[in-house]
Amino acid sequence: MGALSSLTPTPAWFRMDDASAVGTVRRYTVELARAVGLGEQRIADIAIVVAELATNLIKHADEGSLLVRPVRQAENVGVEIVSIDSAPGMVDLSAMYEDGHSTTGTLGIGLGAVARLADRCEGFSLPGRGSVLAARLWQAAEPPPAWADGLTRPLTGETVSGDCFAVRDHTTHRQVMVCDGLGHGPAAAAAAQAAFNIFHTAPDEAPATLVERLHRGLSHTRGAAVTIAEIDPAAGVVRACGVGNVATAVVTGGERRGMVSMPGIVGHGKASFRQFVQPFTAQSLLVMHSDGVSDKWSLTGYPGLDTRSPLLIAATVLRDAGVRRDDACVLVARATP
Q: Any idea where the PPM-type phosphatase domain is (predicted)?
């Protein structure tokens, strides 16, 4: 799995609108790296990486923010930093990683240290639209690329998000979940955390059966909107069951097809657990998000984005379609990494 979760421990967002924020995010990242068990050399490396990314946003970006969160793959742990801004964007993203490179009007000021020190460093940028950059540093050897990843962001003014996502692998198929705890704040986060725990400890069951299991398991919480999807590469399909307002769509070759979610609240009242199926090829993307993200997003205005990692796609959708008046979550998945 990619991210540990959107709630365990809570990822932190930092608005980079003042030079003093660089020191704040650097100290937090060092503390997080030490808490997850990174060695001193890796901690020193990640302090440089986050300082470079933060300083870059302060000097050159519009509405820049950084997400810092722990990541896990089996027994391997690490820290991930995602840099997001709305402008100015870059024509040549690769130039950003050249030491000493500086081009007026672009974000690239020579972040060669980020590329050298990070185990994985990637980005997507469009002139006038902004950039998304991501760097990961691991305790041990870098794991294979993720086939699914996502991001969450709390409502402005809250420190925790009531939205979460989860990913799990099986021998013949893969399953993902997006959960939107009712409301926001700690009570919504508790409902989402309960859903996350049930999803990861449940047996290998069909999406409809899993959502029904969550319906019983969330009865002690305020409830949630939940969709669980299952990608079956051998059959060339994705199966999904949703209750509530989590949006799910399959994007193939620029064509977007939505999947139905039934009305109701998982954990309360009566609900219908119906499973729907859509074709899903090696070129398809599964995009799921909570109602903290506008459903009017489209990938057609971002040439080449659909070929990039799930994390870069999810971060771009969150940046351009996310709303600040609610918790937000975006998950993107492929049939293979």
A: 134-335
44-95 confidence digits (pLDDT tens): 999 999 999 999 999 888 889 999 999 988 889 999 999 999 877 765 666 5
**Helical spans, DSSP H, in the chain:** 20-36, 40-60, 112-117, 186-201, 207-217, 310-321
> How many H helices and E strands in the chain?
6, 15
Q: Is residue 163 part of a domain?
A: yes
- The answer to whether residues 107 and 80 touch, using CB atoms and an 8 Å cutoff, is no
For 19-39, what is each residue's pLDDT tens digit?
A: 999 999 999 999 999 999 999
SS3 of residue 226 by DSSP: strand
Confidence grade of residue 10 (pLDDT, cut at 50, 70, 90): low
Q: How far is CA 55 from the centre of its chain?
A: 23
Number of domains in the chain: 2
Measured in residues, the chain has a length of 337
Alpha helices in 65-148 (DSSP H): 112-117
Q: Are 149 and 332 in contact (CB under 8 A)?
A: yes
Do residues 280 and 183 both lie within one domain? yes
Please state the pTM of the whole predicted model: 0.92
Contact of 312 with 305, CB cutoff 8 Å: yes
Print the domain residue range for 56.
Answer: 12-138
